[in-house]
Design brief:
Strand content: 15-25%
Number of helices: 13
Strand order of the largest sheet: 14-37-36-35
Largest sheet: 4 strands, antiparallel
Number of strands: 37
Low-confidence stretches: 1-6, 92-96, 378-397, 399-465, 467-476
Oligomer: single chain
């Protein structure tokens, strides 16, 4: 904002783009000024005119075109004067390279005029040395200001030239504008004054300016005041927005902390209940084993006695039977009177009792309330500000208690009442929905919000991701994304739109981007600063890329290259032609590179020798794998996207499969790019549904990490930098960077 009383200098007006047309970006030609005070070339305005109106390219104001055309717009004599000054400084004989004298041809001298060495600011003519000396000695021109031409060209006399410059009449060339016709508000020269304006009252320009300047200055002061008010309002708006951001961040942190606390408490209760369940089962099994042992022992005794009696009755003679009759009868009677059953087993069947709030869909654990921002008080009103803060705090506490008091507590079996808890509203339920006293009205509000967001959610995901699996108990809470920055990768020298096919970390807080469309390996910092490019062999279109110790490996076509950071090729290896692209990944040690070739993985050392080769799952899976994306974990495992099995496979360095996931969490999509953080979490890209999901180190799905709400639109490839920055490239060449916040951070 230009403050009241300040004015730009002539040098600023001549050196800035003030004299350039904002439409053609060239120097103004026949400048015309619109009512909004924006100036453009007359020809440029003629191209914008449509149906008797045109829209200002800068302020977008709709301006009616005069019936006589755009030529009837006011001529900007101020800009014309500055243009004349600029043209005079740049004029001269271009063929000879030096300006020619303007008076020599008039005095019968050289036909083209001698070389000019001076300039008359009053006549606006370039003069040779002889004409300049004579110009100073004649009676009519001895008062003229004659300066050296070199200094004039350097701009040393711009102020003087501007003061002596006179506006020329567009109707009568060579005539200066001298009068203002008051009824017509038109500038006149002497010829114009004698023709149609002879009977009109006219004023000399200086007198007219003195009469009208106070009114203009008063209007300008009013505009300056309005600008000051606008600046103050803008600052207030910025402060309010900054305050809102801080409060949103603070509330978001509180929500995350509360949610994490609830999850920790729930997981702790889950662990405790499962422990009790296991202990009860172990005690019951031990008691059952004791009873079964006693029953088996009694059964064996009874079976042995019965078998002996049957043998005697079937095989013994009469004398033998009669001799043993007493003993057998006594034993059988004894066995018949024996208590065979040890008593009923104490079978206590476990039953789980859930908190009534977990079954209630309207049970809210988190609740947002909104209040108007209070205006800031001056420092001299600390007492009032303190009192106001207490009142605001009291209102917040009352508002926090209101939902709990309005809702009836849920009775439990023991007669106690369930305390009401608050719940965070999801985007489907409405971000600006306020707590209402009537439960039915509140339900209706959520229904309306669901209908509102139904159309938006269709393009984001066809189905929700499955709930986190049991691995959540071992790993605690899931990592959270924190947006860091976003930047485009198209550079001024690119002939085509970028097509990012590979990403990898490159040095401290840098990434290397493989742009297959422009055949380049570009370096960027994590802040989006362009750091140059790594030269690639001529004709190569890098596909996948990985950074090693002092070298860069990339695949192009059916070849694997290892080059130095200066672009020198150290070695190249031919790969299988049966695969369209080959994924490249650096080993954690940085001295070997892995590449996927026709369903198996080959590992090369820095000298280009094949170190190892394996098929995930062994030779039994020969021909059953197609690893399109590949990465390594800090633990030394390999993670690949298998398009033939439509799964994500995790294997060790020998090819033994540790885990594999191909469940409904893929939403029927082909698994995309994979990245692994420092703790082994796997980040899988699902391009068709605009998601990045997270898996545990063994390949079990945990849930969504990034969705379309995070700005994902057709994510292409990802990489992990420093184990805590996830870099995501989109199909349009844009890169998003997210910091991965671990649960224990």
């Amino acid at each position: 904002m230009v403050s009241q009383g300040s004015s730009p200098s002539l040098l600023e007006a001549l050196s800035s783009d003030f004299l350039a047309c904002k439409i053609c970006l060239e120097q103004l030609r026949a400048p015309k000024t619109l009512p909004c005070l924006h100036t453009y070339c007359q020809d440029c305005l003629a191209q914008l005119a449509d149906g008797g109106h045109l829209r200002c390219p800068e302020c977008r104001e709709n301006v009616p075109v005069p019936p006589a055309g755009v030529g009837a717009f006011k001529t900007n004599f101020f800009v014309n004067g500055l243009l004349d000054l600029v043209k005079a400084r740049a004029g001269g004989d271009l063929r000879a390279g030096k300006p020619a004298c303007a008076l020599c041809p008039l005095m019968g001298g050289a036909s083209a005029g001698g070389p000019a060495t001076a300039r008359c600011l009053d006549c606006a003519d370039d003069l040779c040395q002889a004409c300049a000396d004579g110009h100073r000695c004649t009676r009519q021109t001895h008062t003229h200001r004659v300066v050296d031409l070199v200094g004039y060209r350097a701009g040393l006399y711009d102020e003087e030239a501007r003061e002596r410059q006179a506006a020329q009449c567009p109707q009568h060339p060579g005539e200066a504008l001298r009068f203002l016709c008051q009824p017509c508000s038109q500038l006149l020269c002497r010829e114009c004054r004698l023709d149609p304006h002879l009977d009109h009252p006219c004023l000399p320009l200086a007198e007219a300016v003195r009469a009208r300047r106070p009114g203009l200055e008063e209007l300008l002061a009013g505009v300056d005041k309005s600008l000051a008010e606008l600046e103050a309002a803008r600052m207030v708006e910025k402060e309010a927005l900054a305050c809102l951001r801080e409060q949103v961040a603070r509330v978001g942190a509180q929500v995350e902390e509360a949610a994490e606390g609830v999850l920790r408490a729930l997981l702790a209760q889950k662990k405790e209940v499962l422990g009790q369940l296991r202990a009860h089962m172990e005690a019951a099994e031990e008691a059952a084993r004791e009873r079964l042992g006693e029953l088996e022992s009694r059964e064996q005794v009874a079976r042995a006695a019965a078998a002996f009696a049957r043998r005697v009755l079937s095989l013994g003679h009469e004398a033998e039977i009669l001799s043993l009759e007493g003993a057998i009868a006594q034993r059988l009677q004894q066995l018949q009177g024996f208590p065979w059953m040890p008593g009923p087993s104490p079978c206590l069947l476990p039953q789980v009792e859930l908190h009534p709030g977990l079954r209630d869909k309207n049970c809210q654990l988190l609740w947002l309330s909104f209040e108007k921002q209070q205006p800031q008080k001056d420092s001299g009103k600390d007492g009032a500000g303190s009192q106001e803060g207490e009142e605001t705090q009291k209102r917040r506490e009352d508002g926090a208690r209101a939902p709990k008091e309005d809702r009836a507590p849920t009775p439990q079996k023991d007669g106690s009442q369930t305390p009401n808890v608050e719940r965070a509203q999801t985007p489907k339920e409405g971000r600006s929905q306020m707590p209402q006293e009537d439960g039915g009205a509140q339900t209706g509000g959520r229904s309306n919000k669901k209908r509102k967001f139904k159309g938006r959610l269709k393009s984001i995901s066809r189905e929700p991701s499955p709930a986190p699996g049991p691995n959540l108990e071992d790993s605690g809470l899931l990592p959270k994304p924190i947006f860091s920055c976003s930047f485009p990768t198209r550079m001024p020298g690119d002939k085509r739109s970028p097509r990012i096919t590979g990403l990898c970390p490159f040095g401290p807080r840098e990434i290397l981007v493989a742009d297959e469309q422009n055949r380049a390996l570009k370096r960027f910092s994590l802040n989006g600063d362009y750091k140059g490019a790594v030269p690639v062999p001529e004709g190569c279109s890098p596909c996948s890329v990985a950074a090693l110790q002092g070298a860069v490996a990339f695949s192009a076509g059916a070849r694997l290259y290892l080059i130095s950071p200066d672009g020198e090729v150290q070695w190249r290896r031919a790969l299988s032609l049966s695969q369209a692209s080959h994924a490249v990944a650096a080993m954690p040690s940085g001295d070997r590179v892995a590449v996927s070739v026709s369903g198996h993985v080959e590992v090369y050392n820095m000298e280009g020798s094949l170190a190892t080769r394996f098929i995930p799952g062994g030779k039994a899976n020969r021909g059953l794998r197609a690893l399109v994306f590949l990465t390594t974990s800090p633990q030394g495992n390999f993670v690949g996207s298998d398009w033939q099995q439509n799964s994500v496979v995790v294997c060790d360095g020998l090819g033994q499969v540790i885990g594999e996931y191909g469940g409904p969490g893929l939403h029927g999509c082909q698994p995309g790019s994979v990245s692994v953080d420092k703790k082994g979490y796997i980040f899988l890209t699902l391009r068709e549904v605009n998601k990045v999901v997270i898996l545990d180190p063994k390949g079990s799905l945990l849930g969504d990490f990034l969705t379309a709400y995070h700005g994902l639109e057709k994510p292409r490839v990802t990489t992990m930098v420093d184990g805590r920055y996830l870099v995501v490239s989109l199909s349009n060449g844009t890169i998003h960077i997210f910091r991965v916040r671990s649960p224990d951070s």
